[in-house]
């Protein structure tokens, strides 16, 4: 499996928060749900997404992928543009609402709570039938929103490969047939509805990521553009296909039939990290996904991802992720149930 296939193979939504948002200007939604990744599709009208100090205008048919968990704002397109604000040390700066001058219609919290800025609950006031929400039953602006709450659902590779906001203009991303099918399912309430919605959201995400990567090859991480170098591409394919193999730099160089020095230099130049560092990262990425998508034991996972014992995997995982495998599994499970 090549790196791109590995990235696109993983998304598995589990009860994704999916709804149609209908708004009449002026409006502004302050999103603080701490989700791993959110898809926003403009169905009618338009909007503007303010995240990470950047502003993205969205027109009908556009899709935006918003990588969390930092807050962002979605507002009506005709709202005055925010003025730039001086940057400060990120380590000392408290989380703040992204700069915007539009009036806030609602604040979305970590548990998908919905309230006014002063805390008044808005769920009933802004509900308009099955999975439809907004300040109007038939507003000028209509958006489809789908949220992957935890990183385990979408895969760490996908979230790390994307920018804060990945914008795919109309006509270059998912076709209207897929979007129309998803919109129809959002409005329905049939048997197995949640499963159908989850799978359609997965397809929408995969097609959107593929479109963005195709349009921005120079902005993609080096490991995704590796096919330009057959030596690096071959090594990455070997690592991804056989993570449990006891790889060394020499063994990987032999795999792609070049010298150790040539391989190490080309790999680092293309991918941005030494081969063994990338191997460790890939193994722990696989381990993280297996911890959150299966109930397998740590010993079983360690064998599959190339660690000789669960203790060795636990030590490497804790050092890289900042938490133990068991605690990580519990945290991701709780996030998925929330």
UniProtKB/TrEMBL annotation:
This is DNA-binding domain-containing protein, AraC-type. Gene3D superfamilies: Homeodomain-like. InterPro entries: AraC_lig, AraC_XylS_family_regulators, Homeodomain-like_sf, HTH_AraC, HTH_AraC-typ_CS. PANTHER family: HTH-TYPE TRANSCRIPTIONAL ACTIVATOR RHAS, HTH-TYPE TRANSCRIPTIONAL ACTIVATOR RHAS-RELATED. Residues 86-106 have a biased composition (Low complexity). Residues 233-331 form the HTH araC/xylS-type domain. Keywords: DNA-binding, Transcription, Transcription regulation. Coiled coil: none annotated. It comes from the Bacteria. Pfam families: Cupin_6, HTH_18. Residues 76-116 are annotated as: Disordered. One of its GO terms (molecular function) is DNA-binding transcription factor activity. The lineage of its organism: Bacteria, Bacillati, Actinomycetota, Actinomycetes, Micrococcales.
